[in-house]
Amino acid sequence: MLNALSYKTKQFFFVLIKISIVVASFYFIYVKLTKNTDFEYSVFIDFLNRNNLFSLKTILFLLILTGLNWFSEILKWQKLISSIKKISLKNAFEQSLGSLTASLFTPNRIGEYGAKAIFYTKEYRKRIMLINLLSNVLQMGITCILGFVGFSFFISKYAVSINYYKILLLSVLTILLIIIAFFILSKTKFSFKGFSFEKIKTFILNYPKKQIVYGFWLSLFRYAFFSFQFYYLLTLFGIHISYLQAMMVISTMYLLTSIIPSIFIFDVIIKGSVAVYLFSFLGINTLTILSTVTIMWFFNFVLPSIIGSYFVLNFNFPKE
């Protein structure tokens, strides 16, 4: 049926899809910014004014931290992809922000895999998806390593009610399920969309180790930039705590929120709920934490996705 359509009809539907993606993205952003039930919009703006959040110096510094955050991600994508295809920093910029916009309303931004793949011809697409998986695993690895360290210090310092028996039981069951799943996949020829366990394992084992190390360090730098941005916002709201004490809670927050499945529009709500609970142990009020999480969301997701919408609208399939 698709082949039966005329060229102009295909182009029309293609443009319609691109516009729909951008309109849906802007709508989700609008809803979150204007209809936030966690706190009143007018109260939020007044709170920002009282803490001088709209000063040129503050906004510029927040933009610099956002830029460094995304520059780390863009550079990581350029370096990881260079093992199969050399791309410019400009191309990496377009692909990173364009795929962000296109994947906003997919669970845990899973749509990013397909969005990045369509920037390339068919011969590259499967490997592009695997490299994107590797990139996300590296970032998740940093979040888990630092998160577990922060969480260990957090529960040792504060009286958190934890059922260690249930956690141990759940951990053992999870590990057993992972081992069983790996064993079954390694002994069968099951594949999904051409991806088999054996192919994925071979691809990762043969992937240049130098590129993986490079990606690991860039993931660490990215984590450092956006976590410091969170701490900087707390200081702007008059919260006087040490950087290490703040990082203990921030790293715990990112660990917990990263393992909870969510859609972009609910991401800020989940992070806000977890952050409010964790920072309550430090005696920090709800409005301060929700304001910090909302500003982080705006600078690190909303602004980049607005830029990415330009690349979505101007996207064309690569020539075979």
TrEMBL record:
InterPro entries: L-PG_synthase/AglD. The chain crosses the membrane at residues 12-33, 53-71, 130-155, 167-185, 212-231, 237-256, 268-289, 295-317. It is found in: Cell membrane. It holds the Pfam family LPG_synthase_TM. It is a multi-pass membrane protein. Keywords: Cell membrane, Membrane, Transmembrane, Transmembrane helix. Coiled coil: none annotated. The keyword Endoplasmic reticulum does not apply. One of its GO terms (cellular component) is plasma membrane. This is Lysylphosphatidylglycerol synthase-like protein.
